Amino acid sequence: MGLSRNVSLSDALRYQGKGPMLTFILHRIGGLSMVLFVGLHVLAAWLANHAWGTSAGIFINNIYENWIFQIFIFFCVLFHVINGLRITILDLFPKLVEYQREAIWLEWFIFLPIYSIIVIVIIRSGLGG
Amino acid sequence: MNTKRISIPQRGFNFDFLMWLFTRLSALGMYVLALVGIIAALLMSARQNMTVADLMRWAFMPVPTHVVNTNIPTIDTWKSLFWQVMGILMLFLAGAHGMHGLLNVLEDYISHTWVRKLFRTLGIVVWVLFSLIGIAVIVTA
Fold it and tell me: ipTM of this model?
């Protein structure tokens, strides 16, 4: 039994949070993905160091070396890094919160070119180019 | 329906405030560590000899096994106490930041106080365990 929130799923999906809501959701998805995958990665590095765990370690690391997975995890990392910088700056200098929407636009202007270049490079080397 | 009391964080100088501050400061710390890592990777001639993934590997966890399969001429000069300390610092900041974030998200969806306490305890145990595993990997790398 959870908290009684009186918000149905369709209400939640229709919530027009727009820019800030989107960054909030993406920050959480990215953060959770990193905890899960980087945690698994640390475990894999440790397993690969031991004879009894080598194959399990290699199995997990193969997921990381797949270029499709890299496109996903790079999105998580880069978005979390850039959005986190915005949150940190606005939280440490609360007067700037007034410019939150501009900051989010700036964030996308920085994120999109860098991420596009990374995706192009990953796809090129992924397809053996 | 019965009204339930759940504990909510209080204002002031307490554990929740400290963790809030730690999340921001650890983020700043990780930017510095990642920048140092990227600059060092470039000094290692990453521009010619590393893929984007290898560059990121050194940025986020600068241990020699991370880039051992690349064409870096001499990885031996980069096996030093300095980079072990850098790796352990990154592990500590990222691990604590990540575990706190994970618990924060979980607690948004859990109303039972005892379930929250269970997850907190579990989270701290997993964090300590993975930190030890990580340090073992860094030191033996």
Answer: 0.80
